[in-house]
Amino acid sequence: MSKPASPSASRPADADRRAWTAAAIARIEADFNRSADTHLIPMRLPGYADIDVYLKDESSHPTGSLKHRLARSLFLYALSNGWLRDGRPVIEASSGSTAVSEAHFARLLGLPFIAVMPRDTSPEKIAAIEFHGGRCHLIEHARDLNSESERLARETGGHFMDQFTYAERATDWRANNNIAESIFKQMALEPHPVPTWIVCSAGTGGTSATLGRYVRYSRHDTRVLCADPEHSVFFEHYERNLAGTASAAPTPCGGSRIEGIGRPRVEPSFIPSCIDAMIKVPDALALAAMRWVSAALGRRVGGSTGTNFVGVLAVAERMRAAGRSGSIVSILCDSGARYAHSYYSADWYAARGIETEHSDALITAAGEGAALPTLPWAGTPNTPG
């Protein structure tokens, strides 16, 4: 039987590991230091003269989406916890954008990266992951993403990043240029510098948690609305949380058609108490809003941005009905360039039976000031109009 290594014998390996971790963190911080912040774009809504709307354009990150912030935070969190090792793969369960961003940071550190994702993920996202040096491991059912990621991590000796568990805790929600701090800095010189509402959507729940925590920590009166897509359990879970029945499992669903947001199960990073209200958005309406925003900006955006924008219209209508002026900030999550084969393809809509004409008319009218159809809404008792 071999003797256990003495403490002095283990020091060089430990020192090498700590040196590699320190160098890895320095590379990520240098990458951040040479990257600019994202733009805050004012957007005029003709029917809401006293309400200013802004879109935080997260598509301008180096990897093209809001998930760049999350990936950076997840890597720094994993490194600081001692979970990453030189030469060992990083594995993530992702439908695309998080994997694109994590592939970027893995390549920055010289680590192999494997994205476990549904087989029907858009080819544009698969190509983007591969462009950044990642490998795509495609599976049939979204419900198996985590178990397959855990299996790969065991077999390869790698680390499963697990965005859906760690998103809400990996981000420094008090500062460090998180998305909330960035929004408030950029709003400082606007007519209504403290937004009445910030509207986001939930994939992991990390962004809604960061926004909700930051506005409370900074003692702002801003409210956070989370817009949930049609095939997702978050809205039902939030309703049950308000009613004190959150222990009951939400009705299972097949998984969201709006890539990057919505989930078939409640994820650990979704914290209902961090948000003030939720709205349930039909996919047809979300995608009509996506097309409306794309036309207004002169460039394509993704479906999650459309989902958010339906939430913007809903809170703008509530503010107007209450006679309130103010500002609303939402998130432009990613570019529509990633969805040429889906949201910008007539065949995709036909195959899924999603109508477009009626929804386009509703969103156009809402942008000009007409009320949206009544959508499911849930809010805390003190949620304002």
Automatic annotation (TrEMBL):
Matches recorded under SUPFAM superfamilies: Tryptophan synthase beta subunit-like PLP-dependent enzymes
Record keywords, A-Z: Cytoplasm, Lyase, Pyridoxal phosphate
Function: A cysteine desulfhydrase that generates hydrogen sulfide, H(2)S. The H(2)S produced by this enzyme stimulates respiration in M.tuberculosis, mediated primarily via cytochrome bd with a lesser contribution from cytochrome bc1/aa3. H(2)S modulates the balance between respiration and glycolysis, and also contributes to redox homeostasis. Probably eliminates toxic levels of Cys (which can induce oxidative stress).
Residue(s) carrying N6-(pyridoxal phosphate)lysine: 67
Protein family (similarity comment): Belongs to the cysteine synthase/cystathionine beta-synthase family. Cds1 subfamily.
Gene that this sequence comes from: cds1
Annotated source species: Solimonas marina
Cofactor section: pyridoxal 5'-phosphate
Gene Ontology molecular functions: cysteine synthase activity; lyase activity; pyridoxal phosphate binding
Catalytic activity: O-acetyl-L-serine + hydrogen sulfide = L-cysteine + acetate; L-cysteine + H2O = hydrogen sulfide + pyruvate + NH4(+) + H(+)
Protein localization: Cytoplasm
Name listed for the protein in its UniProt record: L-cysteine desulfhydrase Cds1
